[in-house]
Amino acid sequence: MEIDVFTLFPEWFQWFSAQRHVRNALVAGTSIQCVNFREHTPLSGGQVDDTPFGGGAGMVLRVDVLEAALRARYDADPVELRKRRRVIALAPGGRLLDDRLVDELAGEPALTLLCGRYEGFDERIVEHFASDVVSIGRYVLSGGELAAMVLCDAVFRKLPGALGHEESAAQESFSAALEGHPEYPHYTRPAEYRGWRVPEVLLSGHHGRIEEWRSARSRERGAAAEGPREP
Ligand SMILES: C[S@@+](CC[C@H](N)C(=O)[O-])C[C@H]1O[C@@H](n2cnc3c(N)ncnc32)[C@H](O)[C@@H]1O
Prior knowledge:
Oligomer: single chain
Low-confidence stretches: none
Shape: elongated
Strand content: 15-25%
Order of helices and strands: EHHEEEHHEHEHEHEEHH
Distance between the termini: 46 Å
Largest sheet: 5 strands, parallel
Bound molecules: S-adenosylmethionine
Mean pLDDT: 95
Radius of gyration: 22 Å
Structural class: alpha/beta
């Protein structure tokens, strides 16, 4: 998979790319390239943003600046680009990133992530250049960089080779193996601590009963996470 991140802060991704599972994904053939759109601005003085029409606080990322950066990278009209490549604008109000969307994105050969800053994007970037608008949660971050890392982290876990031998994404929270429910609780030694005893079934060595117990806890957690039903 080839991931391009358009950002004003490419140095943030140096730390991210050095993390073990990210490095594993990179060794296994994934790439992350950062494009600093300030380096491609057609405006003088490295300008990338401007004041909002209609007034109001903050600065808005300019559509001509994003177009120049996308053209420099892909040598293509961004309006056409999004027909052949997922171009994702990160925004608090976008489609919420969940396991289903992560699975969908992990199946793509290439992703382009657009990280906003300040007040965000001129809406024409979202309307004409992006194929998707994705949010990592209903809260506002200072920029799209952390959101891009969250998305990449979740996607990389799904790629072959990203996790070590002992780990597996096959039976994680929300996986098909757990019927979409959160994962069951885990315990390790000591079997008793301050009077808190590990559930006996986990010490029984009886695999069938352990599986049953885990699947019941996972379903319970799923029901609890959904909260009480409307009467
Ligand atoms: C300060 S935010 C802009 C917030 C915008 N004025 C609003 O009220 O929706 C700057 C940038 O951070 C990114 N961002 C902030 N929160 C995010 C979230 N929850 N999910 C994805 N991206 C987010 C977006 O790229 C956004 O353009």
